Amino acid sequence: MKRTRAQESRAAIERLYITMRHLFNRGSYKPMGVSGEGLVQALMVLSPEIYGSLSDQEKVELDGLLYVMERLPKGIEECRYIRLISREGYETSHLTPLVPPKRKRNCYRLDEEIMYVEMTRGRSDIYDILTHLTFLYIESRKIARNSTDPKGRISPNWKMLENFVNKEKAGEELDAECASAYLSHIIGRTFEETLVAVRKFAKSSNSNSLFSIVYHLGKLAMEETSLGMDREISFSATLRERIGHHVYGELWANRIKATLLEKGLIQRPIHIISANLHSVLNTIYSHQLLGSGSFEAIEEVATSISIGAKNNPGKKIQDYAEKHGFIDLPDESGTNIGVQIIDTAHLEKDTLLPGVKLPSEPSKRPVFVVMDYAFGEQAYECFDELLKPYSEGKKKYPLNVVSTSIMGKAGILHGGKGDLMVPDSHVFEGTADNYPFRNELKKADFEGYGLGVYSGSMITVLGTSLQNRDILTYFMESSWKAVGLEMEGAHYQKAIQSASKIRGSIKSNVKVLYAYYASDNPLETGSTLASGALGMDGVKPTYLITYKILEKLFQ
Hints:
Number of strands: 19
Low-confidence stretches: none
Distance between the termini: 54 Å
Shape: globular
Radius of gyration: 25 Å
Helix content: 40-55%
Mean pLDDT: 93
Strand content: 15-25%
Structural class: alpha/beta
């Protein structure tokens, strides 16, 4: 019986997942050797949408390459050895941390050949970076092939590229068009495509030039083939020992709970919101300070802050918030999840939003714990630790958690960027795990605002870079009736259900609210994550979800 492309793709994801776990447990592997070949073959079979022309034998994928380079430390393409580590004290060394802007983590370049990358977000983070690195190695092999003839002789195009890279390194001015003409042959692209990509890479704050990246990827691949100088990825013993033990999640959660206890808030009604670190703050305090009532008025304030308009109220709102119950807890644990606490007892108005009345008695007023977005399995680690009672000595302090709300970014399967998804269940890809739940938010809550709204199941995936059109079409058109894909939903729900239904850490009738806005449509050419960020188009959906969560909590 012939397997469908969707079945082959799902089997490839499973192979990737199992192989990565095996290599991680082993401690090291050579990505272009026998060990790494399993990952390469599985990724080639899967051919994820985000990596575009990965399976093409000659064309180097340019948008996918930029997407990856903005999430890896600058200069990683120059390093023969990459070591994934835990937080092991390098932050106190003289080494300057490299922090990729699109995936904040500390990275350390020890010398010309070695890069250390700190992994504190759990397994999902490790799978994510290994997938990106495998993509880079596949592309490096193409570059090496395109730069030599059948007898292994170096092409003139490669020699010219090397010349241009040396000039660039020396600070000499380059003729970008001339250099792009030579580069286009090495990456199997037209001159026009190459020039567009060169300009995109030049605008990136985290990436070296496309000339430099292609040269160093190709150079290492050639040295591996001709000189036997193998590249290697390894995992520190401390990382392998700590993974899965909630080390960073526990540190993170205990700091939040210690602050709640210290401020006398741990017994108050607590609403936990996983969102970004600006929308809840700006929504609540723009109503308090500026009297912004309707959603449209708050959206206007948020837009002016986001574009950095002259005399925008961002600084005023921040200053006012700090005097009226706002506590900022930047991350110190290594999770890279910042937290804000908002004590509504200090608010001057008796309404949270228009029509949302607060209790007159300060001791009954709610407390909001707002946490930044988690990453994959990290969502379970952090939520599981946060929902446990806080222990101080022999005394335990259970949290009075009334609600848990999740606002997330997700890939949408119907509609486009900026549209909304309201789930009724989370299905964990590659497992039999599925989590139906009663969502306090409904599709009707978001209708009439000019955005597409879709309701159904959400697929929690192992990695956003491990999806292709065939799998996504299957989930969308089959009886799973999926409306989107993301990486955290099932992990959050697993923690909420175990805490409320089994362990009794929080109330069994805790309110649950989920809504997602579309950061991309992986089924639409040119609309995958590699096509770029939402930008200003993200303001409306982000603030609409925030506004509706705050409204719904007190209905």
